[in-house]
Amino acid sequence: MVKLLVLALLLGATGCRTRRYLEITSSPPGAEVRLDDEAVGRTPLKVPFEHYGTRRITYYLAGYRSYSRRVRLKPPWHARFPIDIVTEVLLPLGLTDRRAVHQDLVQGAEVMSLPSLRSVIERADVLRQSGPEGPRDLPEVAPAVVPSEAEPAPEEPAPHDPVPPEPAPRTS
Predict the structure, then answer these.
(1) How many domains are contained in the chain?
(2) Within 13 A of 57's CA, how many CA atoms are on the CB side?
(3) Is residue 138 domain-resident?
(4) pTM reported for the whole predicted model
């Protein structure tokens, strides 16, 4: 009998876990929302989440500028170690944590400003020259000049071949 009572209490306590929701709204409503680069729906919406930390929210709506921002979700006092062991495992209280995020969208046709091709190539050159450790204390890189057809590139001397030449075939 006691075993059944303990089993019933354990099964009943499993449904009392902490619920976490991120309520995302926008003005005007109806914007498509991506949470950490995953489409989750249109505003207003309520998205469950498991872990606290920094999340990226991106809004898209026709006729409005797209907007992306990082939101830091800090855990409340009852979700911090070691208190969370008591409130979520040993004595599940069934707490609910709701976080609201609102964004006013601005009218405009621009989606994003794209960097120029030259700046992307310059950054790629810096990264290529820096090696696997990354760019550390590298001087500012001037754009490389590509020689035109009027100015031929200087020829490099041919490297010496360490392999001796093969003897000529004998004719008898």
Answers:
(1) 1
(2) 24
(3) no
(4) 0.53
